[in-house]
Design goal:
407 residues, alpha/beta, Rossmann fold, 2 domains, seven-stranded mixed β-sheet, six-stranded mixed β-sheet, 18 strands, binds S-adenosylmethionine, binds thymidine-5'-phosphate, binds zinc ion, Methyltransf_Zn-bd_dom_put, transferase
Length: 407
Amino acid sequence: MSTCRVCDGDVVEFLDLGRQPLSDHFQSEPGLPGEFLYRLAVGVCEACTMVQLMEEVPREKMFHEDYPYYSSGSSVMQKHFEGTARRFLQTELTGQDPFIVEIGSNDGVLLRTIHEAGVRHLGFEPSGKVADVARASGLRVRGDFFEEANAIEVHRSEGFADVIYGANTICHIPYLKSVFRGVDALLAPDGVFVFEDPYLGDILEKRSFDQIYDEHFFFFTARSVQAAAARFGFELIDVERLPVHGGEVRYTIARGGARRPSEALARLIAEEDARGLSDLHRLRRFVAEINDIRDNLVGLLRRLKDEGKTVVAYGATAKSATVTNFCGIGPDLVAWVCDTTPAKQGRLTPGMHIPIRPPDAFAAEPADYALLFAWNHAEEIMAKEQEFRRAGGQWILYVPEVHVAGA
Ligand code: SAM
Ligand code: TMP
Ligand code: ZN
């Protein structure tokens, strides 16, 4: 049992994925001292239904100078954020001297479009090198974690924000109370707080247990976000399902009573209630499904090894740390992983120490099978790696179940 980070209720554990390394910690050689481990376990709050990790990893261990995730690494995500920025420009940032604050602005993938439109902006980004990439293209980025004290300071010096936005970041922040208090200090009376994160409904449906890792502290639903917002004087007014990153929901929050809740919100809440998304017996079924995936995946990889097939992987994602460490998949089963991120290349995956190589190795040394860790980018990757299939290579996927693509 632990205490809910939103409402102080009791959190009941339903899943234990064991001791895990940091999902974005890529060592340069094996055996270096100090690979940090924590217990990756998930529970649900009996009072407010918020699904959350049982144990918190200190934020500085995850988000620091060398944080290796660059949002612009996917062209699909670049388009997604350009579209999102354009929508804000047309709908919310239309007054005199509008102002948008982004929480977790990373390499500037969203704020670039805002800046080009000449609109006032500020990114909060504690990870040094990714923030520097954004600054190099002229963006205003504050190298801090967003929390109450910093938000109050920004309000003092820059006034109210019309939009506060966070993509794939709010679910990373266990101190959600401080975030809401910060939003309360900084958001204009008629402004909106908008965030998008992996959706528990998609995770259960796709059995994408690899969305569970140190950085993903909360697994939101419309119901749990609605309850959280209400505790801080806000109101969830709209939801939008997004196809990115394996299925997300974009939540739009306004000050209580300021805007009318949408039909889409009522529909999603009804759907969640019908599916029993946060019921313990539903969550326990998910646990049984995860164990099956592990057994089937390891079984397939062992069989391919016995048959003398070569197997590599594609995408050294943070998600794959959970898969490899929970299933016990090391270089004996997957020879290496290819990834486009220079900061990951030449290094080893967390915990299981599979070597990471650049994508030209994928073309130069064709494997029989490629395990697609970056399955959320499947369309983009399969489109650019058509030669792999033409040469007889086959993709292995493990969500919603273990299968060989096209087989
Ligand atoms: N928004 C980008 C996207 O969707 O691609 C980046 C997402 S990345 C997974 C999460 C980012 O949030 C990291 O760059 C991290 O440094 C940043 N971050 C973590 N905690 C934060 C906080 N409290 N305030 C602001 N940024 C934070
Ligand atoms: P993500 O699932 O957290 O977005 O991480 C995707 C990882 O996959 C990231 O390390 C970059 C890598 N990647 C490739 O290697 N090739 C690609 O085409 C794409 C889209 C991502
Ligand atoms: Zn709670």
